[in-house]
Amino acid sequence: MEDRSEPNNGNMENPEMDGNIWTVLNLSLVTFLVLLGLNMVAPILPDYAESFQVSYTLVGFVISAFAVTRMVLDVPAGLLSRKFNKKKIMITGLTLILLSSILAGIAPNYSVLVIARMIEGVGSAMYVTAATVFLAQISGKEKRGQWMSLYMGMLLLGSIFGPTFGGLIAGIYDIHAPFFAYALVSGFGVVPTLVLPNITSSEYVSLDFKPKSIFSDVWQILSAPSFLLATFATFTLFFIRTGVRSTLVPLYAGNNLSLDSTRIGIILTVAGVTTAITMIPMGTISDRIGRRNPLILCLLAIAAVTTLIPFSMDMFGFTAVMAMYGAATGLSGPIAAYVTDVSPQDKLEVSMGLYRMISDMGFVTGPILLGFLADLTATPVEGVSHSGLIGALPFVLAAALLIAAGFALMRARDPVIEEKKRALSTWNMILKEPTNETCR
After folding, report:
1. What percent of the chain has pLDDT over 90?
2. Domain range enclosing 165
3. Which residue of 37, 69, 149, 393 has the smallest Cβ count within 10 Å?
4. Same domain, yes or no, for 161 and 244?
């Protein structure tokens, strides 16, 4: 199968789309606010859903409804950002997030809460996908890794501090308050978005939403082996992020190590901090040495650390392992830049939508599959309400998936390395050319 993801001379070189650090910081700030708000409600959402007297299954559906809706709409959101003004798409997404948060906060029953979460998923798909396309288009090749890692780092910071703020707000006021705080920070995000520059589509050709044209674009993107390998790595990272970090780790800490929620929160914060420490500089490094090899190292390093988690016997050892886990995760900073590199450059909106959709597939399936496996392999304990002690098998399976993704990625191309090799080859040819003096 031919790899047709070689960059072309499309709009990426258009001066109108040359970004600057202030534009990147603007996008990163708004993304931080969105993720901050999203994670404010994360700690209280299960209890809030349970307050409507529903089963654990329905509580889980409230949590997954957001991700499922977003997964379904990621590609359509990319298509919308291709045809219409990206700023307007982002502002519309932020507005939907704001309204859905208010609706969730005042929900009179379970059904309204589910509807609110689904609307939030629509808004998140529109904002995040359009923002990712916007960033991909304004990031030149030489700073793409640095800028996209900065963006991912701000996303991570929102994920780190959101639960802390949400818990404090709920403690000071009530369980409804974090939803209104989420609406507030989303509203703040509209203001900096308004001053972003206007950029055009990644194509000069006329755009339409004809099914044949859309399927043709999707097929062209999915026919690029390097894009498929990069997005498989992305799927795996999201699968592990929600399946291991957000599901198995808290369960293991609480059930196996008898740690309370405060200590678990501290440990997850330590992991988040070490991720941030390695993620941001990794972007700059990847601009120099390429992105594929750091990502391979990331996948294999996370696999190694993941196998250590079920052998942690106390809080100190568990914290040390999670600090290493966080540092290894930070090596994934260049992933969005790498997917951009190997995407057909005249189809960025569609490819970023596919990238987001595949990522969200990992987001949705990780907790379900690893949680189910943990249930099947748990060691029962008398007198407790949970399913039992978490075994090693779910962690081993997660590590095996990471290793498979790492070895598969070795077959992908790295445009950064290719460009540097071409530049070096050209320079060597210049040096080998005989001078006039030599000819005489």
Report:
1. 26
2. 12-202
3. 393
4. no
